[in-house]
């Protein structure tokens, strides 16, 4: 019986692309802000 997960490379569990993750979160926050303005939740 083979061990489960032997062929999966083990990492130290940190984000593989921290810059890409930060940029994605900023874009998502901007998108939510624009949606809130569009649906008149926020009135600038």
What can be said about this structure in brief?
With 44 residues, the protein is an all-alpha fold. It has one helix spanning 18-38.
Helix content: 40-55%
List low-confidence stretches: none
Helix and strand string, N-terminal first? H
Q: What coarse outline follows from CA principal-axis ratios?
A: elongated
Strands, total number: 0
Helix/strand structural class? mainly alpha
Q: Number of helix segments? A: 1
* End-to-end Cα distance: 63 Å
Cα-atom radius of gyration:
20 Å
How would a crystallographer describe the biggest sheet? none
Average of per-residue pLDDT values? 81
Strand content: under 5%
Q: What does the secondary structure layout of this molecule look like, with pairings?
A:
Elements: H1 18-38
What does this structure look like?
This protein has a domain at 17-44. The protein has one helix and no strands. The protein has one helix at residues 18-38.
Q: Which characteristics define this entry?
A:
44 residues, 1 helix, elongated
